[in-house]
Amino acid sequence: xxxxxxxxxxxxxxxxxxxxxxxxxxxxxxxxxxxxxxxxxxxxxxxxxxxxxxxxxxxxxxxxxxxxxxxxxxxxxxxxxxxxxxxxxxxxxxxxxxxxxxxxxxxxxxxx
Amino acid sequence: xxxxxxxxxxxxxxxxxxxxxxxxxxxxxxxxxxxxxxxxxxxxxxxxxxxxxxxxxxxxxxxxxxxxxxxxxxxxxxxxxxxxxxxxxxxxxxxxxxxxxxxxxxxxxxxxxxxxx
Lengths: 112, 117
Hints:
Largest sheet of chain B: 7 strands, mixed
Radius of gyration of chain B: 14 Å
Helix content of chain B: under 10%
Number of helices of chain A: 0
Strand content of chain A: over 45%
Structural class of chain B: mainly beta
Shape of chain A: globular
Helix content of chain A: under 10%
Largest interface: A-B, 25 and 29 residues
Structural class of chain A: mainly beta
Number of helices of chain B: 0
Order of helices and strands of chain A: EEEEEEEEEEEE
Number of strands of chain A: 12
Radius of gyration of chain A: 13 Å
Oligomer: heterodimer
Strand content of chain B: over 45%
């Protein structure tokens, strides 16, 4: 079946540091890939997505590229801010099934 | 526009008791989903409604869980009787029906935290 594997957290960085959160997936065919973020006290919200191989999703300075050859969708940001502290979830959805498959989440803590 | 709302935000019950969680989706969203996150692990799919019909309930763990969506508006998830392993955060999400496309954007509520003692 489909699965998503994320690097374990927590990840603690200083402000303006470079961020990478690794995500790999297992799925047949060509799933769509997503990053969701959950800020403290809020529900999950879509951060970015990519629907086909080599697509790059981007939003709020975050980027992730759909790599079919390595089955990966790593999240990156060049310079993190304290306000980026949150839990980040990688997810996939497969054509014909609208339910998302999530990873276990990675908590990011950015210190001033 | 109001987002997805869930109630209660936190419930503490004893093993064997019953709890009912409620979700109000965004108005006009036909698709409603329930997910659960246990002990910091992955968020797992429970079931999917399209209007009042259960489209996919393959993630429901056992028959102690009952989900309903009367009239295709709000939904309830009842756990009866609750067990210790049911503790976790229950998320509800909704989405518009994109007519077969697969945008994957779900709008989530803040979750209902259930603690079973």
